[in-house]
Amino acid sequence: MDPLEMVRNMRFTADDAFLDPGCKALLTALAERDSHTQDHSRRVMGFAHLLGLCCNLGEDDLMALNIAAYFHDIGKIGIPDNILLKPNRFTPDEMEIMKSHPEKGEGIVKELGLKLGQAVAQAVRHHHEHVDGGGYPDGLTGEEIPYIARIISVADSFDAMTESRPYHPARATSDVLEIMQGESGSKLDSYLVAKLRELIQSKHAGLVALLDNSIV
Ligand SMILES: [Fe+2]
């Protein structure tokens, strides 16, 4: 199947089939508080899905990846507005509260009773772990971090840097790749960073479409 078609199908599936009404309601609730997080989550799902395809994930893993990528920041629903919506950088205390979102998200996802719930909940919990152990909440290292959490981490970093935020402008894709190369093997999984670079340099149709915002 054409890669662009695959992403289109994935988006359609994500929106209309594998997310049950409870899941959709939850995502809508988050979007009502913070529309940026929903847009970001959709793009992260697109990038993560393409990376998952490149890594030859099996059907269940790919499905768990899609759902976990969509829900990775759902725990932000439990972060107070004065922090969640703060337009500038967090104080150290605010950052500590913000860093509670993966565990809050894990708790929410577990309650959804999803078929792949355990894998999804683990990926949500660990999407801010760093391969050198410097991340949170558990300071896991390397392959201790679930594979799909490592994929989400790469997709999340890429999207966070290529979009404009109140405290930084959007960066060029080439600059983002250079920064991610510097984080390869410390924050990010080096194999997955190399895979993302391959995807971008091959001008993968699905990725180009996501970057052009023509799908999400
Ligand atoms: Fe997050």
What does it look like?
It is a single chain. The chain is globular and about 40 Å long. The longest helix is centred in the N-terminal third of the chain and has 20 residues. The N terminus is likely disordered. With 216 residues, it is mainly α. The protein has a single domain, classed as Hypothetical protein af1432. The site of fe (ii) ion (FE2) has 5 residues, from loops.
Topology:
Layout: H1 3-16, H2 21-33, H3 35-54, H4 59-71, H5 81-84, H6 92-98, H7 101-111, H8 117-125, H9 147-162, H10 173-183, H11 190-201, H12 205-211
Helix pairs in contact: 1-12, 2-3, 3-4, 3-9, 4-8, 4-9, 7-8, 8-9, 9-10, 10-11
Bound molecules: fe (ii) ion.
Report the structural category: mainly alpha
Average pLDDT for all residues: 86
Number of helices: 12
Extract low-pLDDT stretches: 1-5, 12-16
How many distinct beta strands? 0
Overall shape: it is: globular
**CATH H-level superfamily:** Hypothetical protein af1432
CATH architecture: Orthogonal Bundle
- Element order, helices and strands? HHHHHHHHHHHH
User: Strand portion, in percent?
Assistant: under 5%
